Each structure stands twice: as C-alpha cells, then as structure tokens.
Amino acid sequence: MPRSLIHRCECSNCRTGKEHADRDYHHQVNLLLSRLNEPQRRWFAALEAMHIGHGGKQLMAQVTGLSPTTILRGCNELKADLADCPEQHLRATGGGRPAAEVKDPRLEDTLEAVLALETAGDPMGRRPKAKRSSLRHLSSVLKQKGHPASRPTVAKLLHKLDYSPKANARRVEARGATPVQRNEQFQHIGEQREAFTATGDPVISVDTKKKN
Questions:
Q1: pLDDT (tens digit, 9 = 90+) per residue, 136-158?
Q2: What angle do CA 99, 31, 161 make, to 5 degrees?
Q3: pTM of the model
C-alpha cells in the first residue's frame, strides 16, 4: 500500500513532527491496520487501548483515526470472547460511515475547482492528468475551504477525476529556472486564466512534448 494511504497519527507528540519514543510504533500500528479488514482493525485498536488502560481509547483513536465508539465496540467484543462475531465476518450491508463525498456533496466540485489552476494533461492522452500539489496540501486546502477530507479520500477522488495522486515534479529547466521561479510562472498563468474567464474571453491551454 502506498505510504500516502496509511493513516498519519494525530496524537499530540506525532503532530509536532519531532522524534519521540513511540513515533515509529504508531506508524507501524497504522501500517498493520492498513492490511486488516474492518472488524480486525477495531479489535486490534481495542486490544491496544485495553493494554494502555485509562485514556487508552482516546489515544488509540488519535493514533489510528478510528472513532472512540468503534474502539469501545471492539473492547466489548473482546471481553465477550468474540462470541457474537462470526469467523468469516464481512461488513454488514450499509455498515460503516458514509463516504466523505456523500456527507459533503460539494467536496468533489471544490476539489475540481482547486485543481483547475494547476492541471497539466498528457498531450498523447495516455496518462492521468497531473497536478502540482501533494495529497497533504490538497487535504489542507480543502479543510481551509470548509470541506475537510483525509489524504486517502483525496486520493480516491483524484482517481475518480482521472488525476494521478502523485505531485508533478517541478524540474529545473535548462535555462536555469529555480523551483521558486517555476512556481511564480504557474501562479501568473493561473491569474491570467482567472482574469480571462471572468471577462468571458476564451482560454487555450497548450501542453507540448517532443515525440520521439
């Protein structure tokens, strides 16, 4: 699984970005959870929460992204020796939280609007559309606009919109342009596109590549 799709721990220590004793462990917990199914995730998180003791459910909720209610459910199921949990357990029809784009119908449109000024296509039509921003940046921008979405949700929507989830690398051109200068060029192009669109003038985007 791509590293970008593994949940990022939101505990107070990990949010600082500094090294701490449990940083690698929290990542490994989320790495393991990414390979488990729904009931297995809540059982493992519940087991860890019970091992921690007081405050364990809240901490594991921050570490894993699971809700405290889900972890509490897992605790109750473990205490009952999984008696009511079939061995071949599958998500019940309609179970789980609704997708972010279902809860927020404007999420997808907002993401498209954010991407509009930084989209680069493939002239040969063989690859997904490229964009400059990373999943983390797009998630942050959406949150600022009142449409919070996790990086896995953004990646899923990008695939739906035929975008590559990877950020397009900003190369140093032969003429010696730095990444900062390249970014200024993109900003200028974006401003011009907005100005032309506002006045009803046509906007033509040309992306050329040398064909061997």
A1: 888 898 989 888 999 889 888 88
A2: 35
A3: 0.43
